[in-house]
Write a structure and sequence with these properties.
Rossmann fold, binds adenosine-5'-triphosphate, alpha/beta, about 40% helix, about 15% strand
Length: about 250
C-alpha cells in the first residue's frame, strides 16, 4: 500500500491569506501530497497588546478558505487540546496517530525557520517529520543557527525543476527541504494593518484574501481597528513582532 503524504501547516492564520493557500497548492503538486492539514494554533492573549482574533473566527475562516478544495483540510487538534500544546507535542501526537500509514511534512516559511532554535525541543521537532521550508520575500533563509546534524539533513531545492524535486523527495527520508517555488510577499500582519486603514488600503487587502474569507471579515466586522503592535511594526518590517508574539511553538 502506498504511504500517504500529508503536509501539516501550522500557524496563527490571523487571517488565512492567499500566501498560505498558494504554498499549500504548490506543495500538493510538487511533493505529490495527498492532503494539506492546516493547524491553527492558540495565541496567548497576554502576548499581544491588542487581543488576538478569536480562535473560532480563525478556524471558521480556514474552513471557508479550504471548503472548495477536497485536498485541503483544517484541523482542530491544537485548539481542542486542554492545555495549549507546543508544536513538538502536536507533531508527536500526529506522528503516533498516523503511524507508518503516512509520511508527514511539516511546512513553515523562512521567518519561522530562522526562529526554529527558539522552539521547545526544536531538534526533536525536526526529527518527528520531514520538513518543508518556503522562501519568503524580505526574509533570509540561513542555516547558521542550526546544528551540524540538522544541516546534514537539509536538501536545498531552490532553483530546482519539478522532476528534481519529485526525485529528491523520493530519495531523502526525513529531509528538511528548502524550496523557492512560492515567492509571495503577503503577510497576515500587513493584511490586518491594511484592513484597519482607509478604504483603498482595505480594498487592496481584500485582494490578498480568498473571497469567502474577505466576506466573513466584512460580515463579522473583524480587523476594523488595526492592532497597535501591527501599526508600530509596519515601519520596521512586518515580522518584527513575530518571535515574541507567535505563542506556543
Ligand atoms: P503574521 O504576519 O501575523 O506573522 P503570517 O502571514 O506569517 O502572519 P502565520 O499564520 O504566522 O501567517 O503563518 C503560518 C506559517 O505560514 C508560518 O510558517 C509562515 O512562515 C508561513 N507563511 C505565511 N505567509 C507566507 C508566505 N507568503 N510565503 C511563505 N510562507 C508563508
Amino acid at each position: 500500500m502506498r504511504q500517504q503524504r500529508i503536509a501539516l501547516f501550522g500557524g496563527t492564520f490571523d487571517p488565512v491569506h492567499v500566501g498560505h493557500l498558494t504554498v499549500a497548492r504548490e506543495l500538493l503538486k510538487l511533493f505529490a501530497l495527498d492532503i494539506v492539514l492546516f493547524i491553527p494554533a492558540h495565541v496567548a492573549p497576554h502576548k499581544r497588546d491588542a487581543p488576538p482574533t478569536s480562535a473560532w473566527h480563525r478556524f471558521a475562516m480556514l474552513g471557508l478558505a479550504t471548503q472548495e478544495d477536497a485536498r485541503l483540510f483544517v484541523s482542530p487538534v491544537e485548539l481542542e487540546a486542554p492545555e495549549r500544546p507546543y508544536t513538538v507535542e502536536t507533531l508527536a501526537r500526529l506522528r503516533a496517530e498516523f503511524g507508518q500509514s503516512a509520511r508527514l511534512f511539516f511546512v513553515m516559511g523562512a521567518d519561522s525557520w530562522m526562529e526554529i532554535d527558539t522552539w521547545r525541543e526544536w531538534e526533536r521537532v525536526l526529527t518527528l517529520t520531514d520538513h518543508v521550508v518556503i522562501t519568503r520575500p524580505g526574509h533570509v533563509l540561513g542555516t547558521e543557527h542550526v546544528t551540524e546534524a540538522v544541516r546534514a539533513r537539509i536538501v536545498d531545492l531552490r532553483g530546482a525543476g519539478d522532476e528534481v524535486i519529485a526525485r529528491s523527495v523520493e530519495d531523502h527520508e526525513a529531509g528538511i527541504f528548502f524550496t523557492d517555488t512560492v515567492q509571495m510577499d503577503v503577510s497576515a500582519t500587513e493584511i490586518r494593518r491594511a484592513l484597519g486603514g482607509g478604504e483603498d488600503e482595505r480594498l487592496n487587502a481584500t485582494t490578498l484574501l480568498p473571497p469567502p474569507v474577505a466576506n466573513f471579515i466584512e460580515k463579522y466586522e473583524l480587523y476594523r481597528e488595526a492592532h497597535e503592535t501591527d501599526r508600530t511594526n509596519a515601519a520596521g518590517g512586518h515580522h518584527a513582532r513575530h518571535a515574541e508574539d507567535a505563542g506556543a511553538n
